[in-house]
Amino acid sequence: MYSNFTKTTDGGYALKKQGLVSVVIIGGALMALAILCLKIYLTTQQGNMLFFAGLLLACCLLIFWRNTKQFIVYPPQQIFKYSKGVGTSFQVFRFNELDGATQENIKNMYGLTTGNSLKLGFEQNGKYKEILLGQNISAKKMRSINEEIVQIMNM
């Protein structure tokens, strides 16, 4: 039915994870380097290797944590639920608070486009809030996600 959303058991539609392969590759490489640094520390007792192992492990956990954010659309209740990570502390936004979607190119300091991002904006209690749905995804994928959100909202 939808290529970017999956139906949940409670009647909502959850956005599928974007860029999962790159997260696994980068996170796995950082985890392997952290284990290597820890192994070097255990054999040579060099204190800086323990620091590097901890730093790499923290970066690895940050990458994996970032991929646990969730965005769920509930058409019957006319709400969006968004969690920044691990599925805890959901923020709830109503359909009528939606202020539009922003599709923008991510540029580096030399002005070259290095990726794309998709954000939804909400006007809630007089404050404007943007949530990031996807980053470093193709423009075609962004349009597809945006179109599916509109289709789900109109159910």
How would the blueprint of this fold be written?
Elements: E1 5-7, E2 13-15, H1 20-44, H2 47-66, E3 70-74, E4 79-83, E5 91-94, E6 98-107, E7 113-124, E8 127-135, H3 139-153
Antiparallel strand pairs: 1-2, 2-3, 3-4, 4-5, 6-7, 7-8
Helix pairs in contact: 1-2
How would you describe the overall organization of this protein?
The protein is an alpha+beta fold. The chain is built from 3 helices and 8 strands, in the order E-E-H-H-E-E-E-E-E-E-H. A 5-stranded antiparallel sheet has the order 1-2-3-4-5, with helices on one face. The protein has a 3-stranded antiparallel sheet with strand order 6-7-8, covered by helices on one side. The model has no long low-confidence stretch (mean pLDDT 84).
